[in-house]
Amino acid sequence: MLIFAILTIGLGGLQLRNTIYGPFVIKATKNSLVGVSTNEETRLKNIDTDHDGLSDYDELNQYETSPYLPDTDSDEINDKMEIEKGTDPLCAEGDVCSLADAMPITPSSTIASPLINESLTPSNVLGITEKLSVQDTSQSKVELEELISNPAQLRTVLLSTGKIDAATLGKIDDVTLQKMAEKLFLNPGSVVSP
Fold first, then answer.
1. Domain span at residue 157?
2. How many distinct structural domains can be found in the chain?
3. What is the pLDDT of residues 114-170, one digit of tens each?
4. Nearest to 153 by CA among 181, 134, 184, 119
5. So which domain of life are we looking at (predicted)?
6. Residue of 118, 128, 114, 185 whose CA lies nearest to 161
């Protein structure tokens, strides 16, 4: 019972205190919080802590430099002068700070695929472009069907083109090789995978 009495007196005292001080408490509303952040932005736009000619707001939000150091990269040129010159205020003069600075783009540095000019058609892969002509398409079709039906001959032709090596070709069994060749010649635009 004694504990209950102590709690009642303590909570009653807190309630009395809150009733007395309640009218003087400043309550933050949603709108007043927006004003606080706007006031902070306005304050940052109007001060220049490091005296380099850039406002603290610009240094923090636009240039990402230090508002406390007049020369963020310590190359003895202040941040504003570097920005006016068009150099990076975060990179000391003479240093390479980004990949774009490290590798300038020149026409000779473009990387091109060695296969870019090579047309990979079924007949080109098999090296039989000279054999095929427009006049004898039925004869060439018969030759292709014979070639596809004979895996040993198909392997010989593929190896003679130099486009595939024996080790890679040896990993493909005869049935898969024949199916790939059939897909390649019956549907020339399709993608063939082993």
1. 122-186
2. 2
3. 444 555 555 555 555 444 444 445 666 777 778 888 888 888 888 888 888 888 888
4. 181
5. Bacteria
6. 128
